Each structure stands twice: as C-alpha cells, then as structure tokens.
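Figure 3 (text version): structure tokens given as input.
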C-alpha cells in the first residue's frame, strides 16, 4: 500500500513538472524590435557611409558611434550669428573635445527620448566637401509629456581618409543660418548642450 502511494505521488509530481515546463519545441511570442535597430552602423570606408552613420548614431542616441565619425583635429565653424549669440562657447574654437562633451550631454544625459534626422547631401566634385542640408526633429521628454523641437540648417562638411583607411569629418562649416521662431541650427544645439 505504501509502495502504491509512493508511485502515485511520484507520478503526480512528474505530471506537475511536465505541465509547468515549457515545451522546448513550441514557438514563442516574438519580441517587438527596438525602434532604432534597423539603422546599423556602416563601415566608415566612404564619406557617404560616414554621413549615414551621423544620422544613425543620432537616431540611436549613441555617443560612441557619433564621436567615431570625427577626426581628432575636428573643428566646427558656426554661422557668424551663432558665434555672436554664444560668444563664450565659440570664442576659443570648437574642436573634438567640445564635440564629445556635447554628444555626452545631449545624447546621453539629456531628457531626449527620440531623434529623427532628415538629411540631404551632395558631393561637390573636385573638393573633399559635402553640401549638407539637415532637418532634425528632437522629441524631448519631461516628466509629463514629450516636447518636440526642430533643428535645421545648411553646412559644408569636409572629409579625409585617415591611416586605417576609414573616413572622418575634420571640418564642419555652418554657412546658412535658418533660425526662425520654431527652428534652431546645429550650432545653437551644440552651444546649448556644452
């Protein structure tokens, strides 16, 4: 009798374990992909890929990928109006270190929740420069709602191939200021997050 009870209890325990276990051959519910997972960073073997990576790093809020597109001697030249508005920020020049600080403050530490970049660029033959027009919507989240603002402008972006065969941005010249009531330039954005 005791032996029979033991078998019944054992059988019940085995059935409970089998019932509670997941079938290793069953399909699972697929996870929703990350919103920015589709924009993988491309090898920086052409200036076009670097411009693509500029957009991808901003949209994925990746400081490391963003900073990787700039050379160590990078220089940003803001529009003269922005230089006057933010004299303290631009007086001594804007280089790689300031760009890194901007990226860390804006992409990592700010309350930014999402960025959408709409660039248009065109290579200027015979030069190492791309004519770059950008429009960017930034969705900044405060404690209760999401507040969008827009960044727009026009720049010349200069590239060079470095020792390892990759291309880097070494100079960014913002030459057309499109500040309106609702828009700021990339120069203003940089100054606000330094």
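Below: residues designed for each position.
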């Amino acid at each position: 009798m005791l032996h029979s009870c033991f078998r019944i209890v054992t059988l019940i325990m085995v059935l409970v374990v089998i019932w509670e276990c997941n079938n290793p051959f069953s399909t699972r519910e697929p996870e929703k992909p990350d919103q920015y997972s589709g924009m993988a960073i491309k090898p920086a073997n052409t200036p076009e890929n670097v411009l693509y990576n500029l957009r991808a790093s901003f949209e994925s809020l990746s400081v490391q990928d963003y900073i990787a597109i700039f050379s160590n001697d990078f220089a940003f030249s803001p529009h003269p109006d922005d230089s006057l508005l933010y004299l303290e920020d631009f007086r001594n020049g804007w280089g790689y270190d300031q760009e890194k600080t901007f990226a860390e403050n804006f992409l990592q530490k700010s309350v930014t929740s999402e960025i959408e970049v709409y660039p248009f660029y065109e290579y200027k033959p015979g030069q190492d420069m791309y004519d770059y027009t950008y429009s960017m919507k930034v969705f900044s989240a405060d404690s209760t709602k999401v507040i969008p603002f827009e960044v727009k402008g026009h720049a010349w972006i200069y590239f060079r191939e470095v020792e390892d065969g990759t291309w880097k941005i070494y100079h960014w010249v913002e030459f057309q200021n499109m500040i309106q009531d609702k828009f700021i330039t990339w120069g203003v954005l940089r100054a606000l997050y330094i």
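The radius of gyration is 26 Å.
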